[in-house]
Amino acid sequence: MKRILFLLLLTSVISAQDGKLTFEGETHISNVRQLTFGGENAEAYLSFDEKKLVYQSTHGGLKCDQIFTMNLDGSEKTIVSSGQGRTTCAYYLPGDTKIIYASTHASDAFCPKPPDMSKGYVWKLYPSFELFIADADGQNVKQVTNNDKYDAEATVSPKGDKIVFTSMRDGDPELYLMDIDGSNQTRLTYEKGYDGGAFFSHDGKQIVFRASRPKTEKDMADYNDLVVNELVRPTALEIYTMDFETKAVKQVTSFGKASFAPYFHPDGKRIIFCSNVNSKDPRNFDLYIINTDGTGLEQVTYNSTFDGFPMFTSDGKKLVFASNRNNNKSNDTNIFIADWTK
Q1: Pick the CATH number of 105-128+149-340 from 1.10.10.10, 2.60.40.10, 2.120.10.30, 2.40.30.110
Q2: Given this model, what pLDDT does residue 65 score?
Q3: What is the pLDDT of residue 306?
Q4: How confident is the model at residue 134 (pLDDT cuts 50, 70, 90)?
Q5: Residue 46 in contact with residue 92, Cβ under 8 Å?
Q6: Which of 12, 198, 206, 226 could disulfide-pair with 164, CB 3.0 to 4.6 Å?
Q7: What DSSP designation does 237 have?
Q8: Quick one: what percent of the chain has pLDDT higher than 90?
Q9: Percent of the chain, pLDDT > 70?
């Protein structure tokens, strides 16, 4: 009986892996493996020892995202958030014994209401999102922000000394920096517009992030109207970098489209990100890689739906990402890992 069950399980895994995991033109990735199978799974980020992933997921009976961990082969999926409120953007801290993530559970045990789409497609910057540091198994939760404003999107420097995050505490979504224990929270960006989704370079000397920069009076009026209501319209986001030594901010892309989820290649010379820049369908996002000076744009994935949230291993040999490929249901998003070439 055990052998039959094992063969059935093996057959189901093989069938899933034989599905549409790669597409014509995807020369940068090979040996694609699917790690989750069903539900909405996204923002999977590596532990420092690169043996585990921490990610957010809505599946089964969950009403909104909770934080999970799993091994790099997809085994031992474990919920590590409380199951209350909505969570987002988890990341391991140095030593892999603790994680940081954002949650609304301190304000309300129930999921917050989804954003009002009467103004078009928008993201909600829930003011009940605060940052928490917890043991990697979810125990000993400590709140590190407390200002009744949006605090989320935290990531950790590979050097293990700093955390970057997005906050609405000063009335505009800006980037902030803090020490690894949550202390010394200081503002990094000051230009009008949404700044978020920041990641450190592998030497810890730079960050790469997504940002909107409304230019016309109409765009500025629209932006201001949304921000007052804790909303952001993500249809025009560009990729930027900031150097910590010089404080210089440089714009990398100028597509006028939605580009987000940027991550430095370990060589420090390139950035991988998600964008609809080449798509006629604004909902079709693929992965792209570009030089840090904005030259040499290459399309990495050619899936007709969504690929996003990429992260390289420190040696640049593997790529973790989220995708709608090989879905059982149209609204599923799953986590994948692939070998990286070139």
Answers
A1: 2.120.10.30
A2: 98
A3: 96
A4: very high
A5: yes
A6: 198
A7: B
A8: 92
A9: 94
Q: Please answer whether residues 124 and 227 qualify as being in contact, where contact means their C-beta atoms are separated by less than 8 angstroms.
A: no
The first and second tokens of residue 133, run together, are 């540091």
Residues 6+ apart with CB under 8 A from 324: 303, 305, 306, 307, 330, 332, 333, 334
CA 148 to chain centroid, in Å, comes to: 23
Residue 17 has pLDDT above 80, yes or no: no
Helix (H) or strand (E) holding 318: strand 318-323
Nearest to 56 by CA among 32, 21, 91: 91
Q: What ranges make up the beta strands (E) of 81-237?
A: 87-92, 98-103, 123-124, 130-135, 142-143, 151-156, 162-167, 174-179, 186-187, 195-200, 206-211, 231-232
Average confidence (pLDDT) over 239-265? 97
Pairwise CA distance, residues 141 & 119, whole Å: 36
CA dihedral of 120, 115, 309, 220, whole degrees rounded to 10: 50
CB 336 within 8 A of CB 21: yes
